[in-house]
Design goal:
Number of helices: 8
CATH topology of the largest domain: Rossmann fold
Strand content: 15-25%
Strand order of the largest sheet: 2-1-3-4-5
Number of domains: 2
Shape: elongated
Order of helices and strands: EHEHEHEHEHEEEEHEHHEE
Helix content: 25-40%
CATH class of the largest domain: Alpha Beta
Distance between the termini: 33 Å
Structural class: alpha/beta
Largest sheet: 5 strands, parallel
Length: 243
């Protein structure tokens, strides 16, 4: 493969292909163009990253063991991630392309292909990327690390795992997540989330935070998401994954 130019474009790309030689070749090609490339060999390995990280473009092979490219993209789109996605496939049947577009693909390229054509298609997808996410979805999904809060559906996901919360726990989490890093006093949290609907609850935020952590945190005694501000209240960690 001949690289047309060497630049620093700071664009992030996820390549998922079980064909190691193809995957490594594409990764090297786009890295030399200045892309920040992450590569995975199948959908199972890639799904948490695809959902939680902010990529500018996906390149997925269609046929992979474990979780194929169609299923991977379907699950990603279900989490309201609208990163532009291009499928690579050895098949050129219209039915295969129809299946890809039905799960949310933006483009399709059949193997074998000219790498320059792939490069141009990727550039076009990224240019259109700001419009790839439906306008009605804007502002309705909050992402903090691997945590995804879908305000329209009142759903919370950590990677590929759905987390079931009570209405009050959900309100607390959503409020904290609107401004990661902001310290909220206990009284501020209560004033924002409390209503007559919760009259049967103890008007004390701490027990609800404790229950929220048990559901949300991989290690509730060593929280990564909902942090304590000693002597004051709580805040959402800006970088729960340590990035």
């Amino acid at each position: 493969m001949t690289v047309s130019a060497q630049t620093e474009n700071n664009k992030k790309m996820l390549i998922v292909d079980d064909d190691e030689s193809m995957r490594l070749l594409l990764a090297e090609y786009f890295r030399r163009l200045g892309y920040d490339v992450t590569e995975k060999k199948n959908g199972v390995e890639a799904i948490d990253l695809a959902i939680s990280q902010n990529f500018d473009c996906f390149i997925f092979d269609v046929t992979m063991p474990g979780m194929n490219g169609l299923e991977l993209l379907r699950r990603v789109r279900e989490r309201d991630v609208w990163t532009p996605a291009l499928f690579l496939t050895a098949r050129d049947e219209i039915s295969d392309k129809e299946a890809g577009f039905n799960v949310g693909a933006d483009d399709y390229l059949s193997k074998p292909f000219n790498p320059r054509e792939l490069e141009l298609r990727v550039e076009a997808l990224i240019r259109r990327g700001s419009g790839a996410r439906p306008a009605k979805q804007e502002g309705e999904v909050i992402k903090v690390g691997a945590l995804i809060i879908n305000k329209r559906r009142h759903e919370v996901w950590r990677g590929n795992e759905k987390i079931e919360l009570t209405p009050l726990e959900y309100q607390i989490l959503q409020l904290l997540s609107t401004e990661p890093g902001k310290a909220w006093s206990r009284n501020e949290l209560l004033d924002h989330v409390w209503s007559t609907d919760y009259e049967g609850y103890q008007r004390n935020i701490d027990p609800h935070i404790a229950r929220l952590r048990k559901k949300l945190e991989p290690e509730p005694d060593n929280p990564r998401y909902v942090l304590t501000v000693r002597g004051f209240g709580y805040k959402m960690n800006e970088k729960p994954d340590g990035g």
